[in-house]
Design goal:
By secondary structure, the protein is α/β, with parallel strands linked by helices. It has helices at 32-35, 68-85, 108-117, 218-228, 244-251, 263-283, 292-318, 321-324, 341-347, 361-377, 394-399, 401-406; strands spanning 23-26, 41-46, 86-96, 99-101, 104-106, 124-132, 149-156, 194-196, 234-237, 255-260, 332-336, 353-358, 389-393, 411-414, 424-426, 442-445, 447-451, 458-462. It binds S-adenosylmethionine (SAM). S-adenosylmethionine (SAM) is lined by residues 28-30, 47, 49, 56, 58, 61-62, 213-216, 239, 241-242, 244, 259-262, 265.
Length: 469
């Protein structure tokens, strides 16, 4: 065991040069201001010791053998010190439960939240989540139900707290997604306020190690870490116990710091849990964003949304009164569907390139007159799309860089309201204008979409560059 990995209670502290990651300090979190820099932590994830329930087998522990008032005061002091070491963009995730003693229910996390919200310079309660642990103790008392949950109290420091919700969206597909893709966020829905994560069982993370703890499932920690921090940020747990918070944060390439009073727990963390955890994490990566299932759903919803947008634009143009009565009115809309997930994540909207090719000045004038109103005021304004549609004549289009690029691809022709099924596949895109028909504007796209049998799914293919033009 490498002794330089941690420092000892009342003993010599390491110098910064021999610190190892993750850093689990054997110390008392009541002294955390001696160990941590102000404004240095991005997120605090912790479950403090229970009140008068568990003996963690160490002197000076918070909770065991204390009166309720002393217990609450000491926790409040630790949490207020956490506030000082947190950055303005930081947050606190307090995982706790109520407790019944002498027939009276102590609403511990609620009382802590109330006391802190009464102070001006303190944590602000943002939301309360129910954590369904999926497992309960085998007994109940009269008047209580099987205890399967705990609370997660989420506090923020400043108003500009980190909250990267897109990273933890849950992929979903109801049967309506094909017809109404614009109603679905392509990365899925925001998780609800009941979280289902089963507590780890005996035997995970190295044999027998979990016996003494109520360890967090690492998926739970992962969700909070992804939501509230970026790589290289600092995650802190002042009551580190098994070290689940530190190990998960470390695996996600965050700096991880914890304090734990019981030296034995710290030693076991480094000798048993951390190596076992790292191995398990590598074997079963949890990151949902990287899962092929989620990228496929993203691509399908994003492509359908963009196609529907362009065909709806065409329909709305045809509904304009002066357009309706213009004999032979037509145009072609070229769209290069953009399915780049990274771009979407950084910008938050699709930005497909679109160009209208108009056959003559009269139609150009009419299209120009209605284009901005349709984009800004119609139902298209609520799509997650950044659209600016240029209007060109055929020769301008074919000479433009967009025209040259898209005409080198196999194109798929869509018309009417069938945005989820193409009419024609054009392997010779040069001859696209053969398909321009009066009164029936067409959409030419670089993506082929075919409705699958049963109508609840689509086949999607992005066109390749043509080898011969
Ligand atoms: C509920 S457990 C934390 C479990 C942890 N969330 C996990 O995933 O394993 C609380 C921990 O706080 C530790 N503890 C109690 N008093 C402490 C103090 N004053 N300073 C630091 N740690 C303390 C206990 O030894 C125990 O390991």
């Amino acid at each position: 065991m490498n002794e330089g990995w941690y420092c000892y209670l009342n003993g010599p502290r390491e110098t910064s040069s021999d610190k190892k990651e993750p850093e689990m300090l054997i110390d008392d979190s009541r002294n955390l201001l001696d160990m941590m820099e102000p404004n240095s932590v991005d997120v605090i994830i912790t479950s403090p010791p229970y009140f008068d329930a568990k003996d963690y087998d160490v002197d000076n522990q918070i909770g065991f053998g204390q009166t309720y008032e002393v217990y609450l005061n000491e926790l409040e002091k630790v949490l207020s010190d956490c506030y000082k070491v947190a950055k303005d963009t930081g947050s606190l995730w307090l995982i706790m439960d109520t407790v019944v003693r002498d027939g009276h229910m102590h609403l511990i996390p609620f009382e802590l939240a109330q006391n802190m919200s009464d102070q001006t310079d303190s944590w602000k309660l943002t939301d309360i989540i129910i954590w369904n642990k999926g497992k309960s103790l085998p007994w109940t008392k009269k008047g209580t139900f099987r205890k399967v949950s705990e609370y997660i109290f989420f506090f923020r420091k400043g108003e500009n707290f980190k909250f990267e919700i897109d990273r933890i969206r849950e992929p979903e597909m109801t049967k309506w997604w094909v017809k109404w893709p614009e109603r679905y966020h392509p990365l899925g829905k925001i998780p609800g306020d009941i979280w289902n994560f089963r507590i780890p069982t005996q035997g995970s993370w190295g044999n027998g190690y979990l016996r003494h703890f109520c360890p967090f499932p690492h998926e739970l920690v992962e969700r909070i870490v992804l939501l509230t921090t970026d790589e290289g940020d600092t995650v802190f747990d002042p009551f580190a116990g098994s070290g689940a918070v530190l190990a998960t944060a470390y695996a996600l390439r965050r700096k991880a710091i914890g304090i734990e009073l019981n030296r034995e727990y710290v030693e076991r963390f480094y000798s048993t849990a951390l190596p076992a955890f790292i191995k398990e994490y590598q074997d079963t990566p949890q990151r949902k964003l990287d899962s092929p299932a989620q990228s496929t759903k993203f691509e399908k919803i994003s492509a359908l949304t963009q196609l529907k947008y362009s065909l709806t634009f065409v329909q709305l143009m045809l509904e304009q009164n002066d357009v309706k009565h213009q004999e032979g009115f037509t145009f072609s809309l070229f769209i290069e569907v953009d399915n780049d997930r990274e771009k979407f994540l950084s910008v938050g909207n699709f930005a497909p390139e679109m160009v209208i090719v108009s056959p003559n000045d009269e139609f150009t004038h009419l299209i120009c007159k209605h284009r901005d109103d349709i984009l800004l005021k119609s139902k298209l304004a609520s799509y997650r799309i950044e659209a600016s549609i240029d209007i060109m004549n055929q020769s301008e289009f074919e000479k433009s860089s967009f025209g040259k690029r898209i005409l080198k691809k196999n194109l798929f022709v869509y018309s009417g309201s069938k945005f989820y099924d193409f009419d024609i596949s054009l392997s010779e895109s040069k001859s696209w204008n053969k398909y321009v028909v009066p009164d029936q504007p067409k959409v030419f796209a670089n993506i082929s979409i075919r409705l699958k049998k049963g109508g609840n799914d689509i086949l999607l293919n992005e066109s390749k560059h043509q080898s011969v033009l």
